[in-house]
Amino acid sequence: MSEGSLSVESMLLADQSNSPAEEKTRADSSDTDLEIEDTERSFATIKGAELYLEACKLVGVVPVSYFIRNIEEPYMNLNHHGLGPKGAKAIAITLVSNTTITHLELEDNWILAEGVTCLVQMLRENCYIQELNISNNHIGTEGAEAISRMFLDNISCIRAVQLSGNNFREETAQYFAEALLGNYRVKELDLSHNEFSEKGGEHLGQMLANNEALEFLNLSWNHLQMKGAVALGAGLRANGTLKILDLSWNGFGNEGALALGEALKLNNILVQLDISSNHINNEGAGKLARGLEDNGNLKILKLSHNPLTVEGAVALVTSIRKNPKSKMEEINISNVLVNGSFLKLLDVVCQVHPELDVIYGGVQGFISKKPEQRPDPMKLIQNYLDERKLRLWDFFRNMDKDGSMKIPVAEFRKAMMQQSRIPLDRAQIVELVHKLDQHRTGMVDYRSLVDTQKQMVRDQWWQLRRKESRQKKEKHKSERVLQTFKSAVEMVTSRSSLVMCSGQKPLALPRSDPAYFSTTSLSSWCQPATTRESTSSQNSAEPAFSEQKGPSNHQLSQSEPHSASRGIQPLTWK
To answer: What is the C-alpha to C-alpha distance for residues 409 and 442, in angstroms, rounded to an integer?
Structure first.
């Protein structure tokens, strides 16, 4: 352990020992007195997990088992562990001499300004940690001052810091602005979900004009309003390094959109701009579009959740059409309902800018209509490969110029639009990209293409199985219906063609008896009603038997009404 690191540990311990409350606690505990009698000697001989356990004993906190198990890993995630200021101090003591952890996550641990001060002291000595997340820790103004001093000194090797949701107000914005004016180490800074307001936005705008290191800046949810956006727009004109800027949820309206549009005319470094949820209407979109007509580097523009209509959407897409050097890849207006005219315009623009993708909410008037059924785009690609006897790898390798097995989404979309031998339209390409890049990483890799192909084969197999099963069920159903009909016909035919004994006439059964319908011939039911009535009247007029031969059928039916149905043989009269 170096001499410098030992002095930092001693300083941290001295801060702890100077607390009157803790001195009283140590006086009441003989064990603690024994453990810290020679702190410098003990910390000089131990490190890693053992050092952390000793530090926890010293500050009086319960050790975090996850930290002990993963202390030799480069990525340490201690988010939501309830460390508090003392827990952060124990972590800081341990990490002074750590050489493996490069990314430290400490979000939502209520470490307050006291814990941040210890972390800053640790970062002055540790030259291995490059990414730090201490969001949502209620750092406040005092913690902001400590972090700003670290930025100002350019001592720490940290390059990415997340400070979201730490109750920073407009006075703390000045600390960060002054510290970042000359900082050349920090590349990514997240200051979202704070309360910088308009005045804080003005300070940060001045910083943006002079900073030469920041590449990513998140200022969303900071109540910057119109003046803050105007100041940031002015700073953006002179900035030469910032690539991603998030200004969403700041409510700066059309005037802020105008300032940013003017900045885009001069700035050719910015790649992604997020101005979602800022009360920008069609007028503001038109002002922003004028800047897009001259910009040749912006690739992603997010404008969702603004009160835009199809008029504003047309203005944005038209600006891309007017700019032949535009590199726009994505315009997000996901809450806007477009119409058929807009879709035709978009198809025309995509012929010139095939990498462009516009994310809109839906199409007006098409809600109640059945969506058009298009062939599976992956199936069309497979048909193309089968016709030319190519492998999927051959297809992907033609687009993968650098051999990294990954292709940016914009390049993939452009390659597919220019592939005339595969009949894919813009909507099918969008569907295919959504399948290949489900997590919105901006990249299409070969593995995702293979997985999509396998899923397509499985889907086809299941569709075939379902179709065969449906056909079998229909066939069995038809056979059952036919068999039932045949059985009914055979039963009726056999009952109607019974041969009676010689000299014996069939029994006349009442219609209420089921046997009546069984012994009635099928042809008698097809006779007209008038014919049946006349026939029955004639039969009733003629006696069935003479008095010498026995009683009539009517008398027999009254005496034995159900003899036939019960299988009882009728009496024979002589």
So the answer is: 5
Residue 498 has what pLDDT? 54
Q: Are 168 and 195 in contact (CB under 8 A)?
A: yes
Q: Distance between CA atoms of 188 and 456, rounded to whole angstroms?
A: 40
Cβ contact 289:319 at 8 Å: yes
**pLDDT digit string, tens, across residues 82-116:** 999 999 999 999 999 999 999 999 999 999 999 99
**Measured distance CA(95)–CA(314) in Å, rounded:** 54
> How many residues are listed for the chain in this entry?
574
CA 536 to CA 530: how far, in whole Å?
10
Continuous H helices in 365-445: 377-388, 392-397, 409-417, 426-436
pTM: 0.72
- The tens digit of pLDDT for each residue in 471-514 reads 888 888 888 888 888 888 888 777 666 544 445 555 555 555 55
- In the numeric block, which tokens belong to residue 98? 């750590």
Distance of CA 547 to the CA centre of its chain: 96
Angle CA 97–98–103, to nearest 5: 135
**29 close to 139: Cβ distance less than 8 angstroms:** no
Say what the pLDDT of residue 288 is: 96
* Among 545, 540, 534, 538, CA closest to 574: 545
Q: Which amino acid is at 80?
A: H
